[in-house]
Design a protein that fits this description.
two-stranded antiparallel sheet, mainly alpha
């Protein structure tokens, strides 16, 4: 019986492994960026530029290995949204702790996509509306003025990054080949990142470690991270794919405590429970129409 069950369990274990690696990669993006900027190893504009260029090169190589061109996947609006996400993300982490930044980013992404779903005709069951209210309240608790409040400028920048990423994700939902579309967007966003770095050239600085952290963020946790994520998505339902991403902010917060000596405050803990729990409640209580978005 065990021998018969083994082949059936292999895809499930593969999906779980791929998903875990992808979530670790996404959380590591926050940790790598914060580590580089916290120690002033590189300026934020240069970090974003190196991340985009490295991601573009890795994804272009992956597409070449697949013997597939990316020219037919041009979407400049998606590329601009990707660029805006990376740029705002980089500047936000000048002042935000890793866990706080990841929580604001994730909350803004999900609220942007849920808002778009409502406009497209998706509706929540009563528990879904309660979840939405709880998640918004959690963001309010996190951002209220006080000794433990995050930097207002950093919070605004990260919320903008989340809105940009949410918009980028919405545009990618209809892509026939999401990996090819992502590669095309990185390739088109990379020159925008270089241009931003040139605009901030007077403030540019970087050492070998800062560049290395930016390269790792672009090539490994972004470029290869998306390759792994799209492989995992083949085994996940839309709801499971959305729910597993709830793990990213806690992973980033734990990494910040262990690796960056950041404090895990009561405010952050309460806000995380409210935001992530509320969004999880929403995801489980959609009333969908046939014309609605699907992730």
């Amino acid at each position: 019986m065990l021998r018969r069950a083994a082949p059936e369990l292999r895809p499930a274990f593969a999906a779980a492994g791929l998903t875990a690696v992808a979530m670790l990669a996404f959380a590591a993006n926050s940790l790598l960026c914060r580590l580089a900027l916290q120690q002033d190893r590189i300026d934020p504009a240069s970090f974003g530029a190196v991340r985009l260029v490295a991601g573009a090169l890795v994804l272009a190589a992956v597409m070449r290995l697949r013997h597939q061109a990316v020219a037919g996947n041009a979407d400049w609006r998606a590329a601009v949204q990707l660029f805006a996400y990376v740029a705002l993300f980089s500047f936000a982490y000048v002042s935000l702790p890793a866990g706080t930044g990841a929580l604001i980013l994730f909350g803004a992404v999900q609220l942007t996509m849920l808002g778009a779903g409502l406009l497209a005709g998706e509706r929540f069951a009563p528990l879904g509306w309660l979840g939405l209210a709880v998640s918004v309240a959690g963001l309010a608790v996190l951002l209220l003025p006080g000794a433990a409040a995050p930097s207002p400028a950093g919070a605004v920048l990260m919320a903008g990054a989340g809105m940009a990423w949410g918009g980028y994700s919405l545009r990618g939902r209809g892509a026939k080949d999401p990996l090819a579309a992502t590669a095309a967007s990185f390739i088109r966003a990379a020159p925008l990142g270089v241009l931003l770095a040139l605009l901030f050239a007077a403030r540019a600085h970087a050492d070998a470690r800062g560049v290395g952290l930016a390269l790792a963020s672009g090539a490994l946790t972004s470029g290869l991270g998306y390759v792994v994520w799209y492989a995992a998505l083949r085994h996940l339902t839309s709801l499971r794919a959305a729910v597993v991403q709830l793990s990213v902010p806690p992973i980033a917060a734990l990494g910040g405590v262990v690796l960056l000596d950041e404090a895990f405050t009561l405010r952050l803990g309460v806000a995380a429970l409210a935001i992530l729990g509320g969004i999880g409640l929403v995801l489980g209580n959609f009333r969908r129409r046939p014309s609605s978005f699907s992730s």
